[in-house]
Amino acid sequence: MLNSHEEIIHKNILPRLDVLEEAQNAFRQEVTLLKSDLMGVQRGQAQLEVTVMKDGKETRALLKQFVTHVLGQDEKETQAEIDRGKQKWEIIGKVAVALVGSGGLLYLVVEAFTK
To answer: How many helices (H) and strands (E) does the chain have?
Structure first.
């Protein structure tokens, strides 16, 4: 009976234990590989976050310059329009003063054209 137990142990149980140990070792290796892959992904994510933040900062700086430029252009155009309006009214005022100041001359010109 003892011989049959030893035979069963050597033929059935020990080979099964060897298979289990090999599977456990393979599983451990897989877990180790997954851990190292995960660490690599985490490092890559951190680097990507830094890159995105730098790009965002650069984009904000460019947009700020663009907005400042556009607003400056709008202000210059508005001021130029105001200046043109002032010049126009100044000329109209000068002409009106000249015509009113020389009322007699204006009257003669109007009379000449109305006849």
So the answer is: 3, 0
Find the domain containing 98 and state its range: 2-114
pTM of structure: 0.46
Measure the CA–CA gap between 115 and 104, rounded to whole angstroms: 17
Confidence of residue 88 (pLDDT cuts 50, 70, 90): confident
Instruction: Compute the distance between CA of residue 96 and CA of residue 88 in angstroms, rounded to an integer.
Output: 12
**Does residue 91 sit in helix, strand or coil?**
helix
Question: How many domains does the chain divide into?
Answer: 1
Q: Which residues fall within 8 angstroms of residue 99, CB to CB, at 6 or more apart? A: 106
Q: How distant, in Å, are the alpha carbons of 19, 65, 83, 100 from that of 89?
A: 102, 36, 10, 16
pLDDT at 37: 94
Question: For residues 49 and 55, what is the distance between their CA atoms, to the nearest angstrom?
Answer: 10
- Considering only CA atoms, give the Rg of the chain: 48
Using alpha carbons, list the distances in angstroms from residue 43 to 32, 53, 57: 17, 15, 21
